[in-house]
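Recall the central idea of this unit: under ordinary conditions, the amino acid sequence of a chain determines the structure it adopts. In this exercise we apply that idea directly, starting from the sequence alone.
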Amino acid sequence: MTDHPQENHLEPTSVATSTFFKIELEQYNSAFGISAETLRVLAASYNVTPEVLINRALTMWAQAVIPDLDLDTPTLTPDQIKFLEQRQQRADDKTTQPKQTLAEAFKQLLEGVGENHDNAKSSPRNGGHS
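Accordingly, the structure predicted from this sequence is:
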């Protein structure tokens, strides 16, 4: 592994310079992702394109994990960026720790998603939960 001084900071990616990128879906539905067919059927059930559905899902995820995310503000605040950098640092630290079991990895993944989401406040605008 090479030593990069900025390795622990969020770096610009292709998303930073482009609004278009390619994703590869799973061949079959699994805990690691859904199939292209499932995405198409799910999007059609909401009468939207797969791209719109993915964008909405990412927006909901961002709302759930980024503290005080304001969708009317075009950029993240310095505190939000710091929070995400700290999350990345914790993830980097975990990669140097001993291997965990699959059960531990799933538990950790589930604990990290939605930690700031408040279902009591949910409405159709932010996910349709009731």
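The chain is about 45% helix and 0% strand.
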